[in-house]
Design brief:
Structural class of chain B: mainly alpha
Oligomer: heterodimer
Number of helices of chain B: 10
Shape of chain A: globular
CATH topology of the largest domain in chain B: MetI-like fold
CATH architecture of the largest domain in chain A: 3-Layer(aba) Sandwich
Bound molecules: adenosine-5'-diphosphate, magnesium ion
Number of strands of chain B: 0
CATH superfamily of the largest domain in chain A: P-loop containing nucleotide triphosphate hydrolases
Number of strands of chain A: 10
CATH superfamily of the largest domain in chain B: MetI-like
Number of helices of chain A: 8
Order of helices and strands of chain A: EEEHEEEHHHHEHEHEEH
CATH architecture of the largest domain in chain B: Orthogonal Bundle
Number of domains of chain B: 2
Strand order of the largest sheet of chain A: 6-7-8-3-9-10
Radius of gyration of chain B: 23 Å
Order of helices and strands of chain B: HHHHHHHHHH
Chain lengths: 264, 271
């Protein structure tokens, strides 16, 4: 598969180099990120874990190129990021569906903006919607769907243009436990993870360990990296790994780390 | 078996819903009619509804012709204000310079009672259509600008982030997201502006005119034809309602269903 930026199926690597970020507002200054260094290998799944308000969303916005760092730089596919990085799909904390478009219209938004061939895009949109069980809801408006259905539609939208990078900001944070577990499995089924590099933000330790190859734990604000964990279960993963000793071992280790640093 | 409401059934419910209002209105008319008979209120103080109705039928052509003039003045004034206000609102939101220079002046200018500009406009622009159109325009202008500005700036930032991340140009973001999410505010502004424009046209006619409902009212007043005075008032109200529903119809045709429930984001509009 050839993606617009010319990278092949080997995927896109992300390097976050010496990033500092502060917000200035009316003279007062809030330091949010302090000296973040992070490498995500191509086609790997990296989770960011950290307490609420520590700067996780800010880090994601920086990687998307939507914010400019106060200092440091971000390399995507070996190139310094300037402006927005558009070969990525973003799933925001809330669904951010446009209320005046139908579900299908929302999923097709990337194709509309990027002027991709209409017929092929519609075909793909319908397939994606079917995979998450939203077939039959194509012509519904977002306000006619439940929270879980809306977030699934926004996941389909992020995947429509086959981005090399997926950025997900606590995508399941607002969902009930049952829906959340279902969507964690859906991610693999949809191909949201497979040939892509994923940056996934969560405050749920088990979710992070279940999904990731790499778990990055952030401190309280201003966030710096406390520690990184490698998770070596093979893909695709099933719920069975949640019962393994190794899974619990990593989860406990992260929990212990949170306890030591006074986050838990 | 689940049943779907048919279109006709829905219309039926709507008529049922409005029944109490209609009943109240008829009740008031009946009481009014009764009071004028019971207390022998003279027609030059308060004519009975039946008398007003009779005059409306008798003078229907005259009322119709003068309504057309006033309607034209208000509609042109409203049209002008729509065409100029929305782009100005966009400029205010997109240009820091205009936001800091023009917008504060515009807001401050609302302290001027615009109705009081009417005599000046007559001095400047004569007795024809122009001064009435301009007064209607000046009064209708501000609510649309304010609502456009409020609507555009309340676009959720996440939506703009989403569009930027897809590589959308600023123009695409304006047309596909910001104007759409501002549309309910803009239409709420236009509905208020429609009512204001009629007021502007009449005030213009009060001051200097040889036609229009305002002129008719003045003449009826001078001739002590009080029932006719009330008849023109009814015609004016019908015209205001007509313009309001015309805007509502356009809104219904243009906007997808989730955007139609328009809320008023109006701040500080005065006549
Ligand atoms: N656009 C912004 N302007 C000013 N301050 C911001 C902005 N975005 C985030 N912040 C501040 O940065 C800190 C971290 O925010 P965020 O990245 O959203 O945290 P998290 O996603 O980890 O909960 C918060 O204290 C917040 O107040
Ligand atoms: Mg966040």
């Amino acid at each position: 598969m050839q993606s617009p930026d010319g990278n092949d199926s080997n995927g896109v690597g992300i390097s976050v180099c010496a990033i500092n970020m502060a917000f200035e507002r009316r003279g007062s200054r809030v330091d949010v990120l302090s000296d973040i260094n992070l490498d995500i290998a191509p086609r790997k799944f990296c989770s960011i874990l950290g307490p609420s308000g520590c700067g996780k969303s800010t880090l994601l916005m920086l990687v998307a190129g939507l914010y400019q760092p106060s200092s440091g730089r971000i390399l995507v596919n070996g190139q310094t990021l300037k402006g927005c990085y558009s070969d990525c799909g973003i799933v925001f904390q809330t669904d951010v569906l446009l209320p005046w478009l139908s579900v299908l219209g929302n999923v097709l938004l990337p194709a509309d903006v990027k002027k991709l061939p209409k017929a092929a895009a519609t075909e793909r949109a319908r397939t994606l919607l079917e995979q998450v069980g939203l077939n039959g809801f194509e012509t519904h408006y977002p306000n006619e769907l439940s929270g879980g259905m809306r977030q699934r539609a926004s996941l389909c939208r992020a995947l429509l243009h086959e981005p090399a990078v997926m950025l997900m900001d606590e995508p399941f944070g607002a969902l009930d436990a049952l829906t959340r577990e279902r969507m964690q499995s859906d991610l693999t089924k949809l191909g949201a993870t497979d040939p892509r590099t994923v940056l996934f933000i969560t405050h749920d330790i088990e979710e992070a360990v279940f999904l990731s190859d790499q778990v990055v734990v952030l401190s309280q604000r201003p966030a710096s990296i406390l520690r990184q964990f490698d998770v070596n279960f093979p893909h695709p993963r099933t719920s069975d790994i949640r019962r393994t000793q190794e899974f619990h071992h990593i989860v406990d280790e992260i929990r212990e780390l949170f306890r030591e640093t006074g986050i838990l | 078996m689940p049943r779907r409401n048919t279109f006709l059934e829905k219309q039926g419910y709507r008529i049922l819903d409005s029944l109490p209002v209609v009943a109240t209105f008829i009740g008031i008319l009946v009481m009014w009619e009764g009071a004028t008979v019971l207390f022998e209120i003279p027609s030059y103080t308060l004519p009975a509804p039946s008398e007003i109705g009779a005059v409306m039928i008798e003078k229907r052509w005259q009322l119709y012709e003068h309504s057309q003039i006033t309607l034209m003045e208000s509609a042109i004034g409203l049209g002008l204000s729509i065409v100029l206000s929305i782009p100005l609102g966009i400029l205010i939101v997109y240009s820091k310079l205009i936001e800091r220079t023009v917008y504060p002046l515009l807001v401050a200018s609302q302290a001027v009672p615009k109705v009081a500009l009417a005599p000046i406009f007559v001095v400047w622009f004569g007795f024809g259509l122009l001064p009435k159109v301009l007064i209607a325009f000046f009064i209708a202008f501000f609510p649309i600008v304010v609502n456009t500005v409020v609507g555009l700036s309340r676009t959720p930032p996440e939506m703009i982030h989403l569009m930027r991340s897809l590589g959308a140009s600023p123009l695409q973001i304006l047309l596909r997201v910001r104007l759409m999410s501002a549309a309910p505010y803009i239409f709420a502004g236009i509905k208020i502006a429609a009512a204001f424009a009629v007021v502007g046209a009449i005030v213009g006619e009060f001051i200097a005119a040889s036609s229009g409902l305002g002129y008719m009212q003045l003449v009826a007043n001078n001739n002590f034809e009080i029932p006719l005075l009330f008849a023109t008032l009814v015609a004016l109200s019908l015209m205001g309602i007509f313009l309001f529903y015309l805007v509502a119809l356009v809104e219904m045709l243009l906007l997808p269903k989730p955007l139609r429930k328009s809320e008023t984001g109006l701040e500080g509009s005065t006549l």
